[in-house]
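User: Teach me something about this protein's shape.
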Amino acid sequence: MIERWSVVPELAAMSAAGPNAEVAYGDGVTFAYGTGALVVIVDAGDRPDGSAVDNVNALVLREPLPTEATRWMSAMNKGEQPLLGFVRTAGGCLALGELYQARSVYRGMDPFTGDEGALAFAELTWGDRLPPDLLDEVRPTPELPVPGSTGWPTCRGTRPGRCGRS
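Assistant: First, the predicted structure itself:
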């Protein structure tokens, strides 16, 4: 068993699904489904419109998602297999541990069979809060340019209300 918060090679993370696991790739997310588990690996980074770690104890999956993801998430909900989460970082895959499906949104339902449509959104949670240093690693804060003196008004020697005007 892979310990929570440990960093492992991506192959080790995917092998947690079991032997001969099926693999599907989406935008910023990889799924591996096998006899041992459903493994979800999201890319590190802040993607408000994509799949990513959302906060200290949740990650979100947003469409577009592989079609297999709908089938695997439904099967995982009905079976006894764990859902294991990882975040792909520069140093390997950070293990989040077992995830729990907090909520899901599916696109429609087949009126003839009653089958759910494609998975559009899922919020997956885990118990312990992600430590701040690891949160910074999986959701790095982008460096914003520091405004220089160019383009900023100078107010020396002017009357109030006239700052920045020629």
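Now, about its shape. Helices lie at 10-15, 67-78, 132-138. The two ends are 69 Å apart (CA to CA). If you'd like, I can walk through any region in more detail.
User: That's plenty for now, thanks!
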